[in-house]
Amino acid sequence: MIGASLFIVFILMMLAGVPIGVSMGLSAALAIGLANPDTQWFGLLAVPQNFYAGLGKYPLLAIPMFVLVGIIFNRSGVALRLVRFAVSIFGQGPGMLPLVAIAVALLLGGISGSGPATAAAVGSVMIVAMTRAGYPPAFSASVIGAASAIDILIPPSIALIIYSVLVPGASVPAMFAAGMVPGILVGLALIIPSVLLARKHRMGLQEAALSKPLFWPSLREASWGLAAPVLILGGMRLGWFTPTEAAVVAVFYGLFVGMVIHRTIAVRDLFGILRDAGELSAVILIVVALAGIFAYSLSTLGIIDPITEAIVNSGLGQYGVLFLLILLLVFVGMFLDGISIFLIFVPILMPIALFYQWDLVWFGVLLTLMVAVGQFTPPLAVNLMVSCRIAQVSMEQTVRWVSWLLFSVLCVLLLVIVFPQLVLWLPQTLGY
């Protein structure tokens, strides 16, 4: 009954519009208090202890730094320069601008690690260009919303950092390496239907009339943005710094590019940048801390074990269980962001992964891919919501286009399930 009350109160509070972190924290505190009626106040002492324990983890220091990096690069005009460089490579013609949008989103994933931030940065540049070239705004919003979902896989991904904190057997470098190949595969899976749809429906016919940037000047302008992922990932691989230290290095690199090289960030802009990064980081970290209380209540109330036993004894087998998890996480991915999903479901799903002896790094990437699908699945999807707002279209208008993109990414999800080495090959090769 107490376990049921925990989930009932949690769901009711979310439906009432209470922020998800507050819903988790209050419902968990209520359950802890009900579980110890005789020593209620003594039992509630676990709430502040677990709140602090949820934040007192070294890898979490990387989160506010990578959030700051994303904001700095968005403000410095890196996205526009990457777009011009990509256009100079791929040329112009039907289907080329969607390809450019996906390629730029893939590159920005190695800088910001935030899907909504990438949707805003790429969408503000590409949707205007695609509309001018003759692409329907709903199609442009679909491509940008789907492409920005790749960022949850491409390092530095905040969701992968959260997963590594929750699962001791999966280090941050291993998760970063494991997300690379699936992230590239998802990018290719989005490019193919985007280009085919554009050519089939004769979109972008005015694209060839647009001026094409010269290759070498655009490469020179984009080189500082292109070097950012190399610096972050290469520095970690060479042992120059840890993932947390890499985030700090990336901040100073971004400030150098924005203030000295491009000169798009002035000293007076720093307060606004730090304020925005502080607000977003505080929201993320408070949710992480409150989720620690939620996870503690799940374990102390003995809720996880019955759920695990019911699933593993259902007779579905490991592939049947995986299918149910795909349906569940894609569904909740329509409503919640990746970090919140990990904080809620990883403590529940980890015993299942251990029972079937699934590789924890592979399982983490699989969960991340499921969440990525949910983030651009109508009727509610975080990334698609951002791109629709920029394109000034309703989400219902994107269904005819985004359904093809969803099918392609689900094919990648199937490949990752059937061939786990697509995930494990790179981290094993790098020795993580």
From TrEMBL:
Subcellular location: Cell inner membrane
GO molecular function: transmembrane transporter activity
InterPro entries: DctM (IPR010656), TRAP_DctM (IPR004681)
Protein name, as recorded: TRAP transporter, DctM subunit
Gene Ontology CC: plasma membrane
Transmembrane segments: 55-73, 85-111, 117-135, 142-166, 172-198, 246-265, 277-299, 319-348, 360-381, 401-426
Main location: membrane
Keyword S-adenosyl-L-methionine recorded: no
Database matches in Pfam families: DctM
UniProt keyword terms in alphabetical order: Cell inner membrane, Cell membrane, Membrane, Transmembrane, Transmembrane helix
Domain of life, per lineage: Bacteria
TRAP C4-dicarboxylate transport system permease DctM subunit domain mapped to chain residues: 7-422
UniProt membrane topology term: Multi-pass membrane protein
NCBIfam families noted in UniProt: dctM
